[in-house]
Structure formats: C-alpha cells, structure tokens
C-alpha cells in the first residue's frame, strides 16, 4: 500500500487525468477504502486544490477550476511534450505568444530532471523555426472561441470579410482548425442556415456568449479535409480534379493543404482537387508541380494546358 504522501500524489494525478471520478473507482485504483479517499480529498483541499464532490449513486469527485492554477503532475512524456510545445509556440500565428511562451518555458525548464532536459535541448538545438508571416490572432480570441466550442454555446462576433465589409454573426461553433499559417472557425451560421468557415484573425467575439445549442451532425467525418476542400476548390469559379502520377505523400511535399486537397488512389497515383478563378492560372500551377498528370475535370482546362504546352515549346525552340 502507498504511504500517505505517495497516495496523495497518486490521487491528484488521477483527478487531473479525467473530468469525473466515481469514489469507488478511486478507492480501487489506490487500494484503499472509500473513507480513506474522502480523508485524502480533504487533505488536498487544505492544500488549495478545488475538488468538488459529485452527487448521485455512489458519489464521486471532480477537480474544478480555482482562483489560481494549482501545481500539475506530469509524467516524463507529458513534461517533454509541454516543453517542446512551448519552444515551438512562436511558429503559431498567435499574437504575443512568443514572450509568454519563453516565461512559461523558463518555469518548466527549471524543474525538469536532467534526463528530460537533455531530450528537450536536443530538439531545440536541431530545430530552426522560420518566422510566421501574415496576420496573427489574439490569444483571448482563440480562448473565447475554444470555450464556446467546448461548452456548446452560440458565439456572437463582428466579422470583417475579405473585401473589408463588417457584419455581425451568430453561429454555433464546432471546430477550430489550424492550417499551419492561419486559424479558422468552422461553424453553423444561424442566419444563413448553413455551414461557414471564418478566419479567426478577422473576428471579434461579443460578450456574453449565446445560449447553449444541441449539436447537429457534421457534414463530413473529416472536418479538416472538408474545410480544406472548401478553401482550395469550392470557393473558386473553376474546380479542377486531376490524376497525379506520383504517390500522395510525394505530391504533398509540393502541394500544401492550403493550395489543394489530395486523395490517394493507390501507391503510385493520387487525386488532386484544386481551384482558381482563372483556367490559365490552373494550367500554370499544375504544370509547375513537377509530376505527370491527367486532367479529369473540367474539360475546358485541357485546352488551356495544350495552349500552355505549345507556348512553352515555342519558347524553348527560339
């Protein structure tokens, strides 16, 4: 049986691992009686941990939010993940996160055991992060949106469209999506009665949040792929479907998810879905990817590819 101090740490670790714990389950994990669990919970409360009792059959406990963040217990892999994430946080397009990450990393690094600090330092010495470009997002905005997604609460915000027009939106938020360069909110627009994708750096949440909503079925199992297809193909006048004669993983090195969506056909070929408002631009894009390809849709793109090929042939012969 664990001694009291070890048992308290084990109990705290269990409470931090998931939202709710039945009292009987905690007792079984700790190999003690339910009465001992109650006494241990009281001791943690005296140390400042806000632990709530859950009513119902058998009862249970929950680690709630408090006035201050209590100490967290992390295993080795979790500690390394936190440290590495803080070191790479500057690559995310979030306003002011660099300085905050450095302060948090200093606190984590101070208490890391030597064996873990070596792993983190090895990663930091090997990686160079290119500076992020483009607009950034206020962390408070991401936090407000994420909380609305988690709590299933309607989100009201002011939104600036691509042409600079401002509108007020009322949505049911479902997912926050990070493309590597930008953050997007995928939501059900109440007024439009349809799914919409919003740039997070263009929205300003309003308070208070709206009422809770009952989740509706998502239009696709893979929301990220669905949103990527909307941003790279559906929003444009021309939507091309190409067969690329190379593995999807190889093509992905040349075609980022912000430009086109890839679907493997087999080990040697894949489908590329890509869009543009110009067929000439589409022809030029696919010709520069460096792979053999065939145009499946639209048929008029084939003529533009032929024209481009003839133009390049003439230029090469001069």
In short:
With 318 residues, this protein is an alpha+beta fold.
Verbal overview:
The strands form three sheets. The protein has a five-stranded antiparallel β-sheet. The radius of gyration is 26 Å and the shape is elongated. The N and C termini lie far apart (87 Å). Helix 1 crosses helix 3. With 318 residues, it is α+β, with helices and mostly antiparallel strands. The relative contact order is 0.06. Strand 4 and strand 5 form a beta hairpin.
How many β-strand stretches?
12
| Stretches with pLDDT under 50, minimum 5 residues | none
Query: What's the SSE pattern?
Result: HEHHEEHHHHEEEEEHEHEEHEH
What is the tally of helical segments?
A: 11
First-to-last CA distance: 87 Å
List the helices and strands and how they pair.
Layout: H1 4-17, E1 20-22, H2 23-30, H3 34-46, E2 51-54, E3 60-63, H4 76-88, H5 97-111, H6 114-126, H7 139-151, E4 155-160, E5 166-178, E6 183-189, E7 194-199, E8 203-205, H8 223-234, E9 238-244, H9 248-252, E10 260-264, E11 270-276, H10 279-288, E12 293-297, H11 299-317
Antiparallel strand pairs: 1-3, 2-3, 4-5, 4-8, 5-6, 6-7, 9-11, 9-12, 10-11
Helix pairs in contact: 1-3, 2-3, 4-5, 4-6, 10-11
């Amino acid at each position: 049986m664990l001694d009291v101090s070890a048992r308290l740490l084990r109990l705290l670790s269990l409470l931090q691992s998931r939202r709710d714990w039945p009292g009987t389950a905690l007792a079984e994990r700790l190999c003690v009686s339910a009465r001992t669990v109650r006494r241990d919970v009281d001791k943690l409360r005296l140390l400042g941990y806000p632990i709530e009792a859950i009513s119902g059959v058998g009862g249970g406990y929950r680690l709630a939010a408090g006035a201050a963040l209590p100490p967290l217990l992390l295993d080795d892999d979790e500690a390394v993940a936190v440290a590495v994430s803080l070191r790479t946080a500057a690559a995310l397009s979030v306003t002011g996160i660099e300085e905050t990450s450095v302060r948090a990393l200093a606190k984590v690094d101070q208490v890391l055991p030597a064996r873990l600090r070596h792993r983190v330092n090895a990663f930091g010495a090997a990686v160079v992060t290119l500076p992020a470009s483009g607009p950034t997002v206020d962390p408070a905005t991401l936090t407000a949106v994420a909380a609305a997604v988690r709590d299933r609460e309607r989100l009201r915000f002011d939104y600036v469209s691509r042409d600079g027009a401002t509108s007020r939106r009322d949505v049911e938020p479902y997912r926050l999506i990070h493309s590597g360069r930008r953050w997007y909110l995928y939501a059900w627009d109440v007024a439009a009665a349809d799914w919409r994708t919003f740039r997070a750096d263009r929205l300003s949440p309003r308070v208070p949040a709206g009422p809770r909503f009952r989740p509706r079925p998502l239009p696709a199992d893979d929301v990220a792929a669905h949103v990527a297809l909307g941003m790279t193909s559906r929003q444009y006048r021309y939507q091309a479907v190409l067969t690329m004669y190379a593995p999807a993983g190889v093509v992905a090195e040349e075609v980022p998810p912000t430009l086109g969506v890839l679907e493997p056909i087999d080990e040697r070929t894949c489908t590329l879905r890509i869009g543009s408002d110009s067929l000439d631009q589409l022809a030029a894009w696919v010709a520069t990817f460096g792979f053999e390809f065939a145009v499946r849709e639209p048929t008029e793109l084939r003529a533009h590819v032929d024209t481009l090929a003839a133009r390049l042939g003439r230029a090469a012969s001069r």
